[in-house]
């Protein structure tokens, strides 16, 4: 009898344990299933290609955007950008005035020299002071100095960030005591991404949510960050590769001798050949088209070795389109050259983007969504 | 005189209503389906102007005409029915011809005629005329409806976006596909420019595929074709070609072909990796064999442009085409061979052909098998490859049975140039062998030796 009792108790403990295990297994199975339906998108590209801007845009478009606390959180970043920019411009003007024949162009006027040195010192610190009205005024004065404007026009030789003009023109607003950054300010704010950031969202169309769930990953772009990513991204649905096409005449932040476009070209090639992306769809965003438009009529494409065989055919809008098509064809050629025959059935599409234009990003993402949904149907044999 | 009261149950005559003493006139009889095959549909009143019966019959071209209207000799609707003494009715010209051949019998009853008069059957003529007129007017109305609908859809298209736009396009496509008059309306009302404006870098697949499906049905002017040749528009067509269903792919192919016919056509438009890869994918798709012919057709057109040939080679088209050769039907085969032959004119092409191990055996098999053109192309390809490295290739070729085939060509009724070519190739291949060995390779009999 005693034996019987104890066996029963033993069985009871066993079955409880089994039930728990079964429950856990069920939960794991459910979550794995749910995970399977989440499409993973990876934002890749060289530094400054606009990945993080796209990331922010998606957050603004399909998530709840930024609340006031998050917006305010960007104030130090924006102020830092202001100081960094004016320092680069000031130091740049000094450099140019020492090295070039027409050096007088780049000599800051006497009354601004002191301001210049002061701002340069501030910009070199690790901690920046809050942007006061006084400082803002000084920065604006320096910005309007002819030498600085001349330096700005040679921005591609230095590392002048793309947000320079925008912030310099908005100094008054940025230095308000109760300044709260606008969405646009946040989009322009430049912070070097380290590590990986992710958001999960569902694109909202005309008919509310489309049902697709995406998880978007943004990674650091500079060379020293690159090795980190790749191992994390098996099973990614699509890679959104950002290439800033306006940077054909600029050099890398981390290596002054390397042309940015060549860097992008090499990175794209490398990414295409990765075994983990064998079946991944590739969406190439040719980004910063707005800057490209303005630049291409003034700076010929052939300054970049990759585009050395470019021949202009006309002027104005037609020429811009022609130049864009040329760059697009180059990327297409690169894609097919870097893709083994057994991978040629991967989805590959090129989109023209200006990451700062929210409407455009929304339109572009809708197309990306359509392509990915069709691809899913196709793979399920329904198309 | 009692009025004829048709019974409702009289299925033979198919009267609707009736039995209420109204006068049976011709129009009503036809409308009420005396002769069957008439869909009611609100037609009222007689015929306005005098319509020509012959013209109506031709234009309508209906597959089902009431059997009593058909001439037993020609099996065509009668335009001038005449009745013989036997009571049988024929088309006048046909029966007179019958008589002129020396026959004096009634063709259907085989009876000998006791009276050679042919009496015009006015009643039957009127029935035939009325029936066709009604059909004609209906068709015209439907056509006008279609025109009206097309016009309406075009104005809607100018205003709507999103889902509504896609629906409008779908409907417009259906109207245009079934009515040639609607097509003309769309062209006349500036529809082509409107539709073209919908193609661009931000065109979704849903919109783009419908636009292409409509454009492909329309007669495009030179100006509209030039407009469509803008790089951004061509890009979107190529994207749709890449992603589309078979039907959409074929539409894209046809549209591009139309653009290529234009005299201002610039080769760089088709000088696109994406386009060529998409075409090769279409050609290789085993699940959709109906796509092979259109794909090959366009590829042939493109290969006629010298500048694009090395690009076609660079995407690996040659080994893919060579592998396909044994599976293609004669029509596709001729196209594939044309393309390979065109590609063999560039150095990369020759090299790729040589590098592909199945080129020579496949080409040899094709000689004298399908058609003279195929033989011509296959021979030309073999010539290119063997010329490139005579020692290596002639060995392979001869082992594959080339020599015997070449002899066949020489002895056949083909054109003299072809025979000449064959002879030259034979000579080239024989250079590596001694006479005896070569002859044995040819499997010749002593006499021909």
TrEMBL record, chain A:
Main location: membrane
Positions with a binding annotation for GTP: 187-193, 218-222, 287-290, 355
Gene3D superfamilies reported for this sequence: GI Alpha 1, domain 2-like, P-loop containing nucleotide triphosphate hydrolases
InterPro entries documented for this protein: Gprotein_alpha_su, GproteinA_insert, P-loop_NTPase, Plant_Gprotein_alpha
Keywords (A to Z) from UniProt: Cell membrane, GTP-binding, Hydrolase, Lipoprotein, Magnesium, Membrane, Metal-binding, Myristate, Nucleotide-binding, Palmitate, Transducer
PROSITE patterns linked: G_ALPHA (PS51882)
Location in the cell: Cell membrane
Keyword Transport: no
GO molecular function: G protein-coupled receptor binding; G-protein beta/gamma-subunit complex binding; GTP binding; GTPase activity; metal ion binding
Recorded domain comment: The helical domain is required for self-activation.
Quaternary structure, from the entry: G proteins are composed of 3 units; alpha, beta and gamma. The alpha chain contains the guanine nucleotide binding site.
Similarity section: Belongs to the G-alpha family.
Name used for this protein in its record: Guanine nucleotide-binding protein alpha subunit
UniProtKB/TrEMBL annotation, chain B:
EC number: 2.3.2.27
GO biological process: protein ubiquitination
Pathway: Protein modification; protein ubiquitination
Keyword Transferase: yes
Alphabetized CDD domains for the sequence: RING-Ubox_PUB
Catalytic activity: S-ubiquitinyl-[E2 ubiquitin-conjugating enzyme]-L-cysteine + [acceptor protein]-L-lysine = [E2 ubiquitin-conjugating enzyme]-L-cysteine + N(6)-ubiquitinyl-[acceptor protein]-L-lysine
Domain U-box: 64-138
Listed SMART domains: ARM, Ubox
Alphabetized UniProt keyword annotations: Repeat, Transferase, Ubl conjugation pathway
Top EC category: transferase
Top-rank taxon: Eukaryota
GO molecular function: ubiquitin protein ligase activity
PANTHER family: U-BOX DOMAIN-CONTAINING PROTEIN 31 (PTHR22849:SF142), WDSAM1 PROTEIN (PTHR22849)
Biological role stated in the UniProt entry: Functions as an E3 ubiquitin ligase.
Protein name in the entry: U-box domain-containing protein
Biological source species: Sesamum alatum
